[in-house]
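Hi Y.,

Following your request, here is the sequence exactly as I used it, all 219 residues.
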Amino acid sequence: MKNSEKISVYVCHHKPSDLISDSAFIPIHVGAADSSYHLNMIRDDGGDNISLKNKSYCEMTAIYWAWKNDKDSEWIGLMHYRRFLAFDSTSTDQDEWGLIATDCINSSTIKRFGLSDFSVRKIIAENKNLMAILPEKWSVRSVGQKDLMQHYISAPYHFEKDIFLARVAIERIFPDDVAYFDLAMKSDVGYFTNIFIFKRELFLRYCDWLFPILEFLEK
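Below is the corresponding structure, written out as tokens. Let me know if you'd prefer a different format.
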């Protein structure tokens, strides 16, 4: 990796909270177009955006904003004001959800988990063919579910028909991918919490695939 490569990990905020901000970690105000808060950070309602859809798209409005407006980052990621990857931690103190909980974000936790441009660059530099940095795989069997389908259907505030509509969307728009959807739904493991860092070409492919599906479901 060239030291000059631009890394942009957009950290979603919707209200005042602790900030992580350096040359790689960039706070972004999601749902800014319809927010009563004025946060001192990038907003998701500039340029080509879907900020007004934040109540249904949630943090996806930040991903959309980066897809349409970030033209020069070689690596693009998403994290949340209270949900980060641990880049430099040997802690195995994980709960049943595969998470390492901490009370607050401060200089100590930033150092403990390697939440810095330096740590991200180090991982990329040490893995020459790297395309993505993701959470560790997590099994839904940890909370008593047999597969991802059951986990989705049984979760509070989820609707069973939605996951089947997602399958319809994939089958119609990307028919070659529906077999992978079925395979994933029968698996007990997945990459959860919607946080990642992708190489630019993978990020663009991801968005080109994902947003047509979401638009189909919205309609």
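The two ends are 41 Å apart (CA to CA).

Thanks again,
Q.
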